[in-house]
Fold this protein.
Amino acid sequence: MGDPRDPVDHWLNAEVEPLPPRPGAFERISRRAHRRKVMRASMSAAGVAVVIAVAAAAPGIVSALKPGGGRPVPPVAASSPRPTAAPAVTGNGSGGLSSQSSSPVPTAQTPASLVNQGPLPGNFQPTSVTFIGVHTGAVIGQAGTQGHCASTYCTSLAGTTNYGGTWFGVSAPHAGPPDGAQGVGQLRFLDTDNGWAFGPQLWVTHSAGAHWVQEQTDGMRVIDLETAGKRAFALFAKCSGSGADFGTGCGSVSLYTSTAAGDRWQRVSGPAASLPPAAAGQAASASLVLAGGRGYLLAPSGELLSGPLTGAAWTVADAQVPCLPGAPGAGGQPTGALMAAGSGELILVCTSAASTAGDSQTKVVMRSSNGGTSWSTAGDGPEAGIATSVAAAEGNVVVLATDAGLDLSTNGGVSWQLARSGPVQARAGLRGFSYVGMTSASQGVALPADPGLHEVFITSDGGATWQISPL
């Protein structure tokens, strides 16, 4: 019987002698290994150079992701409320008030105008108006019927892009009308993005009115607010007035400021951080005017302060102006001393108590060409009517609103003529006009004292004639 093992198994189990390498093989392997080490070192150095280059470019990348740098910042999710910060208020201007969100605060890309939300609600009753530039403006007021509004509140906004030619709906703050420490009734926009509703609460929008957020005021009421440059300035006060008289009984008034999108209100240092009060037994009010790159603040005591629009300290321009602000009127504004600025001058209308014989009042027009340091008499104002508001513009234009109508002076208050009588349809006790403002030498706007007329008055010829713009 032959060998039972398979020949393949026999071959696999046989001894194998390895072949010798070709001549020079070991030298070639050594050279290849050396080249691989050099290449790895070069690649590592290149990687370090890339990291260094990215690090050097990082500041530019980061700045491009910040607001205003390169690509726009993505909107905050509608379900993500902004974190709140506790207020820190001090008397030396080092403290501030941070915004407090009561609703989501999405950011938005800069719109061309206020956000149009469709037709206006019915029964629109405007209480305040603001304009941005020569075309765009907005009004705030109550609209609809209580209990049948779009939300719990009937506060509404209307916008225009053709200076009151037509109006459209804009989202409004979720607040009621002025009622003691609650609600809002006044409106100011700095630009098409940033606006504030106030008096006595404070609300802000950074999205052209699409969304509103309540600001923290630490229990104080906002009795006046104006905007200019890149900032808003406001008067915060501790008041005790009830109902619509939210600006009465104010024992402490301070000037605060915030950048357009900063949402942090800071006391303006110096005397403006705590204004001197009115004398004991006297009604107190205050007013704020921003013009010509400076701000002017008439304190309850009659002291006039002035300062830059940068947030830096304000100083005393006049320890005592010719007349006291007196009791607050509609919207918390003074009734004894009405202040405006135009043609490089400050205008001050000093009023007396209303005549018991009828609807008349003594009015003296004062003006200052040196920022309120000294004053001269321009002339007597119109006797008819009780003064409510004054506006000034380039070309020595001064317009006075009273409960009898709108009076115009084209020579800085020296002489006057009646430009528009009060609306004849106004209800008793709400005659004439509550507010007048000039946005340029030719354009201006006025509000009837009776918001139930659903009207705004517009001028395009420097206050000589006024046309109704219906809401």
